[in-house]
Amino acid sequence: MEGNQLFPVFIKLNELHTVVIGGGPVGLEKLTAILGNSTQAKVTVIAKEIIDELKEFTLAFPLVEIKQKSFEPHDLNGANIVVAATNDNVLNVEIREAAKLRGLLVNVADKPELCDFYLGSIVQKGDLKIAISTNGKSPTIAKRLKEVLNESIPEELDTTLQQMNSLRNSLQGDFSDKVKKLNEVTEILTRDLK
Ligand SMILES: C[C@@]1(CC(=O)O)C2=NC(=C\c3[nH]c(c(CCC(=O)O)c3CC(=O)O)Cc3[nH]c(c(CC(=O)O)c3CCC(=O)O)/C=C3\N/C(=C\2)[C@@H](CCC(=O)O)[C@]3(C)CC(=O)O)/[C@H]1CCC(=O)O
Ligand SMILES: NC(=O)c1ccc[n+]([C@@H]2O[C@H](COP(=O)([O-])OP(=O)(O)OC[C@H]3O[C@@H](n4cnc5c(N)ncnc54)[C@H](O)[C@@H]3O)[C@@H](O)[C@H]2O)c1
């Protein structure tokens, strides 16, 4: 496929049901990414064996349910999003097929060819989130870029966001008047670019 075909979106995992299959270090890594962004995410973890670190990590998240069992396709009934992180490549393909049969989007950790979507590297400053992808070319660069942006974006940007939200809610007039005002007061942010 020519070029980068990925379309970034921001998913309300707190309003959806995510099923994670696999309870090893990679399962824990993906679960950490999910809950690090969406502490209210409703997640079911399914795995034959689950490492202690994963069990301990999930203690802080009451909406996470752990089911220690072999994967069966009906485990995806009622799911909205599927993340597979097993050490069995045949099973990973079966999980993908079970997800497709149910019309679900699936991520198979570290297996780009089996993914409908990739996890991104995420910069977080309060309400601001920036998701980075390298089209699968180098997750390490995504992670490094996250570190650079985390350092260079000031913490105060979140204060600015909150103030802008108050202003946005208080503005009177028609839509184009409001847009004009919001653009005027933020013009300073791009002054150095001109
Ligand atoms: C961003 C991040 C999000 C997250 O996972 O939370 C993420 N990987 C992260 C880290 C990371 N992953 C790997 C390393 C080791 C170094 C290396 O191999 O490069 C490191 C670096 C480290 O850990 O330091 C191994 C690896 N990853 C993939 C493959 C397979 C392949 O490339 O073919 C292999 C080789 C496996 C093997 O050799 O067997 C594939 C994928 N990894 C993705 C996401 C998706 C593409 C994202 C994009 O478009 O850039 C994609 C396609 C699918 C997916 O898994 O969603 C997270 C950064 C978290 C942070 O911000 O700190
Ligand atoms: N650990 C790493 O740093 C790393 C890095 C790159 C790629 N990988 C690959 O990612 C995959 C997962 O890695 P890991 O270290 O988490 O592996 P792991 O072996 O520690 O964990 C695999 C998990 O899958 C579960 N599982 C296997 N078959 C199952 C079944 N039928 N039903 C339910 N659960 C089942 C296991 O119980 C276990 O919880 C592996 O393919 C590995 O090669 C791992």
Automatic annotation (TrEMBL):
- Residue limits of the Siroheme synthase central domain? 126-147
Matching NCBIfam families? cysG_Nterm
The pathway to which it is assigned is: Porphyrin-containing compound metabolism; siroheme biosynthesis; sirohydrochlorin from precorrin-2: step 1/1
> Organism's domain of life?
Bacteria
Q: What is its EC number?
A: 1.3.1.76
| Presence of keyword Transmembrane | no
List the SUPFAM superfamilies hit by this protein, alphabetically.
Answer: NAD(P)-binding Rossmann-fold domains (SSF51735), Siroheme synthase middle domains-like (SSF75615)
Q: Which keywords does this chain's UniProt record carry?
A: NAD, Oxidoreductase, Porphyrin biosynthesis
- Which EC class does it fall in? oxidoreductase
Q: Which GO terms describe its molecular function?
A: ferrochelatase activity; precorrin-2 dehydrogenase activity
What this protein is called in its record is: precorrin-2 dehydrogenase
Catalysed reactions listed for this entry: precorrin-2 + NAD(+) = sirohydrochlorin + NADH + 2 H(+)
Name the species this protein comes from.
Answer: Pedobacter psychroterrae
Instruction: Name a single GO biological process.
Output: siroheme biosynthetic process
